[in-house]
Amino acid sequence: MRIVGIDPATHTGVVILDVAGTPILETVLVGKGKSAPGGITQEQRVSLENQLYRILQPGDVIMKEGIGYATERIVTTAKIHGGLESMITRKGLTFDEVAPDAVKKFVRVSNWVGEKGSKQRLKGSAKKKVMAAAALEHFGYSNPSHDVVDAYVIAKIGEAVYRVRNGGSLDDYPRIYQREVVWSIVDPDGYEKYKEAQKKKSKSSKRRGKPAAADGHTQVTEQAFLF
What we know:
This protein is α/β, with parallel strands linked by helices. 52% of the residues lie in helices and 15% in strands.
């Protein structure tokens, strides 16, 4: 049994973990052939798909990153994802999908930096550096390729999902943000109910606006009983 993490793109990161969670393949797949500015040609896409097909083996447990709908090249991205998914199916395998934001969440990376009111969205090299630092902090893992780093985190999510589905427990993941990512994949309905409950709890715990005199009096009375 191998855990395969796939980060689909024109440069597709792939990391494969063995049963002990040790990387046995760390690579970036790039389609060969005539190129086109700002996208990927049919020749390159077929090459990319064939490379993934040759890597996969029967029994592989696959986790791939889903499409980030905020991407600037949604058509190209969709073609790449669809092609790679077809290769997985042709190999007789199935896959789970994790949202791009959930990949970041698993290693506690936010899309934004800065103070409230002046936050800026992480982009380009800044986002890559933060992900690299987070992978090193959480797993002691590093790689010069940001595509490989992302694929490694995706593979670790796949590993966690596999273990929970096969006798493990969500409690094995004490970091709540990691537990929530795994939960959202293994039990999406249960996770949605949990999120709704959290929202209601958050709303009910918020203080009301400036209280009237009667409200203030009631609060003092309650405090006398509580303390």
